[in-house]
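Case study 2.
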Amino acid sequence: MLARVAGRRVRRGDVTPSVAVIVAAHDEETVIAGRIENLLALDYPREKLEIIVGSDGSTDDTVVRAHAYEGSGVTVHAFFKRRGKPAVLNDLVPLARGEIVVFADARQQFDPSAIRSLVSNFADPGVGAASGELVLTAGDEAATASQGACVYWRYEKCIRSSESRLDSTVGTTGAIYAIRRELFDRIPDDTILDDVVIPLSIVKRGYRVLFDPEARAYDRAPAAPGQEFSRKTRTIAGTFQLFSRERWLLNPVRNRLWFQTMSHKGLRLTLPALHVAIFAANLALADLWPYRVLLAAQLLFYGSAVVGGLQRRTGHRPALVTVSHTMCLLTWATIVGFMRMVTHHQPVTWERVGSRTRIVN
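Prediction:
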């Protein structure tokens, strides 16, 4: 509602500043060639496009296959010790020549017009960063398993779009976002959510961070709930880390995005407690007929989540079962993410689950 009545315009323009695309990769020999070819084929002036690949301690042929494209102007930096994406970005951004730096992962594919759309936002001098949209696609074998994750991601994108129209979105999509190079500040090497910390540091300096749905990257949706659980656990641990380090976010005087930050990021951390509280309150009021209906709805929701868990390996499940199971799984991920954060058991590096590494933050 706020975005509709008090939205701020963006002065987009057909501009072509120099752009550096930085791809951080670890053991991506099966996809790195296709990724580089995708970037080389982008609809953007080639003389203004710099492609930098940073290998984060790869032990396979990622570096060898990336080196094959050096003749096409691709720069490859091989780091022999695996340190995580934030450390790679800290080393590579200062080496980039582009006025705009685009951060990307190895496993996604950009739409041909993605870079043009992203940089058009920087025609407005008040814009410091812009995030693209990650489009999740599911094959027949994963369509059912990924249904819940896709519903959740559509909801997330709706929030980001509204935040962007009002002022700025809280965080970006790690698979495709751009910043003004001059606004980059080094982040701690153990940062879990670089795609939240970097944009918020830009917001702190008075710039806007936008969500641009026309700048698209494509990825496969999770083939199993466990893959989304692993990703979300990491994201939640990173959010707890964010609030523990960036205390200014909690101050409505210092953080002009305080409402967005607390409602979007902060309130989600309390979901397990809120689930318990609303269920307990509903039980206490069960002798009143309106609350009997609500209690029945809650029991149906949790019951379908249990059924979804028991049938997670079946090929076809009703939408209610899939979505409720996914949402409960993500709520449980909040508890696990908190425990990993306080016990320092959440590594900064990505661990591959099944055939995938990551989707979106």
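The two ends are 25 Å apart (CA to CA).
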